[in-house]
Amino acid sequence: MFKSLIMKFIALSFLCILTALNGAAQKRVIDSLYKDLRFKKTDTDRAVALYNLSYYYQNFKPDSAMFLAKEAYNLSKKRKFLRGESWALSSMANAFHALHNYPKAIEYFIEQLKIEEKRNIPENIGSTYLSMALVYNSEKDVRKALFYALKADSIAKVNKLPELALFAKLNIGDIYEKANQLGSAMVYSHNAYELSLLQKNDQITGVALNNLGNIYFKRSEYGKANDYYRRSIPFLKSSEDYNNLAECYVGLAKVFKDQHNPDSAIYYAKNAYKLANDNEFFAKAVDASALLIKLYKSNGKIDSAFVYQEIMITLTDSIDNKERAKEVQSITIAEELRQKEIVEAHEKEMEERRQKLQLLAIGILIPIFFFISIFLSRRKVNKKVIEFSGIISLLMLFEYLTLFIHPFVAEKSHHSPFIEIVVFVIIAALLTPTHHKVEHWLIGKLSKIRERHIEMRQRAIDELETDKED
């Protein structure tokens, strides 16, 4: 019992030291990103800086990533910065993916997809499909994961997008492998490997070779599995992909275990555990420690098996606690976002109401100006004042019409400045002659009213003078 407590204490202490060291490095990067944000002046630049912060926070603090991305989204939407909106939605979706809230992740990826379809950039549409495929794969919905991954692959093929094709084929191979459809998995993983060589992408070369090792291991072709695993190691090391390298070491350990070579199996399982633990890939560390327990037990080394069992329990508890915390975080964040959206909707409603009231006020003011013009025309006022009043009334009317139809034009043109300019030039071309005709008609009418009233006034004066003479 005492030994068990000591082992738990050592394991927890080791995890705390690693977390502290990693935290110090993270703080330096975050401080640098916040410093960059402070120097940004325009809304679009601030939106990009906020997205960069959000992207960095995604893996270890998804709640912060979420709120930073939301702020970036609001700024981007305010400035009609579609690229910024898309990035922010992607960041929010990835944060929900990290929190294992898959429905919310899909919801935000769909919103991103709508924007990318407006922008009509095939590579971005394909990338969004691929992100959705990864969420469905995490949810173990193989059918939908393949549907979206294959759509991404199709877009890559039609539009000749080699990088998208590479990632699509790699992920399709991985989806098939996890679903134990090994024939299809092998075809796509080989394609990904060949494309990675052409594109000189060492990391993907290493991942594809590791995936092929997994496939051949499941087929019990241990010689080929061993070969692919070993070939992946230098690529994964050079690209510092320690997560997949740990998986590769676990794969090699399993190969040697099934080939009844316990010493080599223990060697690679230990390497996998150390690498995963040092880099905080705790799920891989659990896989490696579980394998070491089996290996030591089969060799009769109960003490060593017990050590790794205690480590595995500690790691599993840590992972379970993190998963529960993620679930709570996900619910909390979803509710906070909902409340924020309610506030934003209310503010938007108030702004729209304010604008409508202003339009109503202007609409009421225009006929008042017309009545003032008519009133002035009946009084002894300079003709130019009447003409000026009439022109102002007409200008307000036509500007009011332009202001009134602007939201409709903006919505239908998807806020495209070019389309808006063309539409308003056409409207101006139609309204300008009408404006001039109405202006001449109105001024003429007001002048006639003025002249008639002057004549009537003069006649009245003449009649009074005649009466006086009589």
TrEMBL record:
Residues 1-24 form the signal peptide. It is found in: Cytoplasm. GO terms for cellular component: cytoplasm. The chain crosses the membrane at residues 357-376, 388-409, 415-432. The keyword Chloroplast does not apply. SUPFAM superfamilies: TPR-like. Keywords: Cytoplasm, Membrane, Repeat, Signal, TPR repeat, Transmembrane, Transmembrane helix. TPR repeats lie at residues 86-119, 206-239. The keyword DNA repair does not apply. SMART domains: TPR. Gene3D superfamilies: Tetratricopeptide repeat domain. InterPro entries: Bac_ResReg_Asp_Phosphatase, TPR-like_helical_dom_sf, TPR_rpt. Its main location: cytoplasm. Belongs to the Rap family. This is Uncharacterized protein. It comes from Pedobacter yonginense. The lineage of its organism: Bacteria, Pseudomonadati, Bacteroidota, Sphingobacteriia, Sphingobacteriales.
